[in-house]
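Ticket opened by: R.M.
Priority: normal
Category: complex prediction / small molecule

The reporter submitted a protein together with fe (ii) ion and asked that the result be attached to this ticket for the collaborator who will pick it up next week. Submitted input follows.
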Amino acid sequence: MPDGMIAGVRRSTAHDNALHIRLAAFNHCRMAPGLPDANWHEGIAIQARMLVEEAEFLEASRRAVSARAETAPSDADGFVRWFKALERDGPGQNDPLFAWLAEQASLPEMCWFLTQEISGEAGFDDLAALTQVGMPVFTKLEIARNYWDEMGRGNPKGMHGPMLEKLSVYLKLAPKIESTVTESLALANTMVGLAANRRYAYQSVGALGAIEQTAPGRAALVAQGLKRLEVPVENRHYFDLHAVLDVKHAEAWNAEAIHPLVTANAALARPIAEGALMRLECGAACFRRYRAELGLM
Ligand SMILES: [Fe+2]
Ligand SMILES: [Fe+2]
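Result attached by the on-call engineer:
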């Protein structure tokens, strides 16, 4: 059996872990507002090396989903039906981890899970903002509406990022790259890699759409677990909200962002499908690893 393979499922290796720690650090700097730096020559040389490592990782992930992506229809109506069906039959869907979190996990177990998830959270708002650059009008407008919801429609209390931070502060979580499992880092590195490189712009539309399509079911079960563990309602609002709002976001993303793209150019079905599958495979790998770490297998 090759290194990293157990029962047909590839497990992360020490090499993967080192790569994803490097990429996570790179992405942290890449997304942070900065200042001009006298060492910019050296900075660009380091960036170039990291971009090659990132591309090798993303291309391997893309190859791994290409056979299934090829089965996606290329007519807009058929493609949107295929995309919606990922909620039922996509990689990682119906993972038993979430029923367990809803019904059985202890508070320390829930906190461990949330710490991993928060560490692997790449910030939907910034990913959406990067993805919309240069998109056609309908797609750009839908991403803008979604972004405005992420921004609490202008009300700081309604912003989604700070809402998750509020839960993290209440539970005294301390997400750190070093204590995050490789699979969770890989998920964030995939999302940033797709959104930050224009050659993956359509994969990013698919990956963000896959989040909207699949998040509500998981969010509802996490919300149920937090309520059972007596986390006050004002601190668990992030999961209550996404259990409901992302149903609407998914409908709108499919109708207004994806459908017009595939109508205008049938060749875009394939990259959108690849992005969705890459994102869902990352999620599936996280859930397997979380179950292993939590002794659920
Ligand atoms: Fe959100
Ligand atoms: Fe959403």
